[in-house]
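Lab notebook, bench 4. The sequencing result for the construct came back, and we need a structural model before the next group meeting so we can plan mutations. Quick request posted to the team channel:

Model the 3D structure of this chain.
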Amino acid sequence: MAKMNFGGVIENVMTREEFPLDKAREILKDETIAVIGYGVQGPGQSLNLRDNGFNVIVGQRQGKTFDKAVSDGWVPGKTLFSIEEAAEKATIVMCLLSDAAVMSVWPTLQKYLTPGKALYFSHGFAITWNDRTGCVPAKDIDVIMVAPKGSGTSLRTMFLEGRGLNSSYAVYQDATGRAMDRTLALGIGIGSGYMFETTFQREATSDLTGERGSLMGAIQGLLLAQYEVLRENGHSPSEAFNETVEELTQSLMPLFAKNGMDWMYANCSTTAQRGALDWYPRFHDAIKPICQWLYMSVKLGNEAQISIDSNSKPDYREGLEKELKALRESEMWQTAVTVRQLRPENN
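Done. Here's the predicted structure in token form:
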């Protein structure tokens, strides 16, 4: 385990150099790994494990997702089973279902979590708020987590490119004395570039805060607000979109992702430099109270309850599609369709 300096704070980090793939294979050589759920994270994690030489099976209910698993090379009756069959065969049960699905499947799943098995998550939600989800594991199993910091699609794409997506890891319960080894081996097996230590509670609260904040909720709110102000003041859709979204995603994000925001400030025009330095504190002061409010709502379990209540409604899918349709058909994101078509690589 390496001790790394993150802005003056020392943290534990595990890299592939310190924990090579051969070591991970040796640790898990006698394990049967069942990936339960083939939705968002399931394909990337299971396919990466399979390609890395681990003994993997998939558990998925019949339907379109089951058919997708078949098209990805999982063979019914050999490597693709019902959730119950897969969980029974496994020594490590990787629960990669949505948070709402975990709740509905848990009464069935826990029957197959016999002593010595490991229960694996890629999100701390179900365990952190188990007073609401009902997911209370028995004391005689390992409960572990590796949480890739990105989508399952990114995990798979980066793996195929020979890269790795960073992940956090945690051990909630070590019943066998092997929980940490199992965790790190699985993290390497799914294609993590490096792994940093966390807890189920910290991962769950930071994840829900990030999704509602800078990763998705806040970024859409900021982009839409600026786009609307430009449009309301006579700017065309193409100009408003380019100055709000296109330049950010296509030009600036790759640069400050690679070099940092300080580098970006040092390498832009003096006019942009002055404006950025003058205005970021104003945005910070306006937004931080909202972030504090958001974090407290997450920490108190309010956001978890909203998610549970919403996802449990019988008409959830219909309501979700209406909200997504309104977003998709908004002027800003319809403008994006035309702008993307105009990119040189698409012509």
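The CA atoms of residues 23 and 185 lie 7 Å apart.
Will bring this to the meeting.
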